[in-house]
Amino acid sequence: MFFRLVEKMNAMRGLFILFLFQTLGEFGNRLLGLPLPGPVLGMLLLFLALCLIKSVPDDLDKSSQVIVGNMAMLLVPVATGFAYYLVKIQQQILPIALAATLGTVIAIVFTSLLMNSLIKKESEDE
Amino acid sequence: MSNLQELLLSPLFSLTLTAGSYLLGQKIYKLSRCFPLLHPVLMAVIPVIVILHLTGLDYLQYREGTEFFTLLLGTATVALAVPLYQQLHLIRTHARALMWTLVLGAIFTPAVALGLGWISGATEVTLLSLAPKSVTTPIAIAVAESIGGLATVAAGTVICAGIVGAVIAPPLMSRMGIHNPAVRGFTMGLTAHAAGTARAFEISPVSGAFASLGLALTGALTAFTMPLAWELIKLF
User: Fold this and answer.
1) Which residues from chain A sit within 8 angstroms of residue B133, using beta carbons?
2) Which of A67, A94, A95 sits opposite B72 (nearest CB)?
3) What does the radius of gyration of chain A's CA atoms come to, in whole angstroms?
4) Which carries the bigger pLDDT value, residue B226 or residue A3?
5) What per-residue confidence (pLDDT) applies to A65?
6) Which residue of A has its CA nearest to B125?
7) Residue B94 DSSP one-character state
8) Does residue A80 sit at the B interface (CB-CB below 8 Å)?
């Protein structure tokens, strides 16, 4: 009876797995005093668990897609805070804008050139 | 009147405001045919600020009311383990090139952000918030907070970097003569996380898959190395 109930509510089961690993991550973060943030530790533990069972349970796959796909909504409060922050501390706008624009362009040039030349070298070696 | 005030201060109001504003932002974004500069998060900030202004709620009260979404952001971080696991098989195609690009790219990108911030007068708090600028937002927030940066600045910078990358990366790489879809995708995932990955999927499924891999690997690597590296730096 209980299992049938759980089977029907599979979206909740996926969410339960995510919450469980998030809790484990926070537990590890506090217990072990690691400088790694709780959610990151939770991600590592879940990744290791997936490597062990060698597949992604359907419920977990669905719930992950829903929460990752709608992550942007969860960012609205911090993005609002960013707008308030910029208005308040205007002398930091320049460094932030430079890092986000020029910094990203430089990173794109570096990364794409590096990987492109590595792959070319790889195919020449073969 | 005080009843109304109570409702404004309850999480229900803040959460409804956030969800509604986001749906509006998404609508504008879709109407503009996914024009990256009209990113749904940026569009959603406008109605939130307007309504906060009209109701007299301040940001901290709003932030407290949306605490539940902050918690779910952590859940989203945990959920990133799934795409990481699913895209991992792609590594085999260009194992060595991908690993070198990942490691060097994940060091170079924050180094450039820090360098640019440093020369233009960033404070230490800003620098610590800029460091994780190319990784997916929930990880960037977690990393920035753990090393002493600000979640808001980290999130804002990451979102802006993602938008810049999504707009500029495809034409820039074309002009540089880089046409390999694996390189184009991985670069966009590594430097422009979710926005770049979404754009890469629009260009081709292969690019999109490599972008997801780039996003997941860069996020995971930065999440583990940056807090530890900062602990080491602080020792000296």
Assistant:
1) 99-100, 103-104
2) A67
3) 21
4) B226
5) 87
6) A92
7) G
8) yes
**What pLDDT is recorded for position B111?**
93
Nearest chain A Cα distance for residue B100, angstroms: 8
To the nearest whole Å, the CA of A113 is away from the closest chain B CA by 8
The model's pLDDT over A11-22, given as tens digits with 9 standing for 90+, comes to 789 999 999 999
A81 → chain B, closest CA residue: B152
Mutate to test the interface with B, among A20, A62, A73 (most CBs of B within 10 A): A73
Which residue type does B174 have? S
Quote the radius of gyration of chain B (alpha carbons, Å).
Answer: 19
CA B21, chain centre distance (Å): 19
Q: How far apart are CA B19 and CA B58, in angstroms?
A: 18
Report the pLDDT averaged over residues B141-169: 90
Higher pLDDT, B197 or B173: B173
Per-position b or e across B77-99, b if 16+ CB within 10 A of its CB: bbbbbbbbbbbeebeeebeebbe
Which residues of chain A carry a pLDDT beneath 50? 1
Contact (CB<8Å) A108/B139: no
Q: How far apart are alpha carbons B231 and A15 in whole angstroms?
A: 33
User: Rounded to an integer, what distance in angstroms lies between the CA atom of residue B113 and that of residue A98?
Assistant: 8
In sequence order, which residues have a C-beta less than 8 Å from that of residue B104 and are 6 or more positions away? Answer: A114
The answer to whether the Cβ–Cβ distance between B155 and A75 falls below 8 Å is yes
Q: Integer distance in angstroms from the first to the last C-alpha of chain B?
A: 56
Residues B215/B197, Cβ–Cβ less than 8 Å: yes
CB A80 within 8 A of CB B14: no
Q: pLDDT, tens digit, for every residue of B72-90?
A: 988 988 998 888 888 888 8
The sign of the dihedral angle between the CA atoms of B52, B57, B59, B65 is negative
- Burial per residue of A56-68, b for 16 or more beta-carbon CB atoms within 10 angstroms, e otherwise: beebbbbbbeebb
